[in-house]
């Protein structure tokens, strides 16, 4: 059985209706998907804060903790329970905004690009469409994420944290370094991390889900919605592992730049100096914990996102009809 892309619509007259009140592929549909993305990304990323703080600190200083468990115990003993939640507010806010842009715009660009490509090309080159749509969405979504990522990294990699809340961090960075010199100084490396990450995340998810339904004995439409969201979770976890590996070197560099870049340095100078200090091997510090974190995150996000789509009366993502 060959599964064709479910986003191809032959003509405006063929536009399907969702089970609810919102017409599929309408502006309201894309806005709803954006809301679903915010719900999927904000809480899930924030729930990983205890792992994230250890990962970021070990990326900045590999000798700080002997292991992830040692890092967790050290933070609890020296900073208390609140310490392991450092950066929670900035993480929640930033990734809620980013999730809204990423998922909503992905659905929008995926649909628009398929229409521009035409039916034959859309079916033949669907992987290219997934990659193009996800890259376009992430470029925009990172504009919303970048300030909060800068605050989060600064909070997590300074001991004691340089700000007690996301708002305090925002005000401090703007006062000391300005909006573009402080909150957006990590935008370029963030793009280098997030755009490949999202391209792999969405394309590998779509292709994994497609492969799962090709392997199963029945077409997607004959499985219950609960079973379909289960496929989404499995496909999301596989996609998350791939994402973690592909984007990890850039993730390390983002953490280092936000924590260590000197005001007098250009981006190229900062990257060159940091790479000279840590080398190629240093770009992979913290990879095991990030594989676990991102695999779990990605699986949960697709589960939440597709569960939201089901609740709204929309079809689940990927795998044909």
Automatic annotation (TrEMBL):
GO terms for cellular component: mitochondrial inner membrane. GO terms for molecular function: phosphate transmembrane transporter activity. The keyword Chloroplast does not apply. GO terms for biological process: copper ion transmembrane transport; mitochondrial phosphate ion transmembrane transport. It is a multi-pass membrane protein. Keywords: Membrane, Mitochondrion, Mitochondrion inner membrane, Repeat, Transmembrane, Transmembrane helix, Transport. It is found in: Mitochondrion inner membrane. Transport of phosphate groups from the cytosol to the mitochondrial matrix. PANTHER family: SOLUTE CARRIER FAMILY 25 (MITOCHONDRIAL CARRIER PHOSPHATE CARRIER), MEMBER 3, LIKE-RELATED-RELATED, SOLUTE CARRIER FAMILY 25 MEMBER 3. This is Mitochondrial carrier.
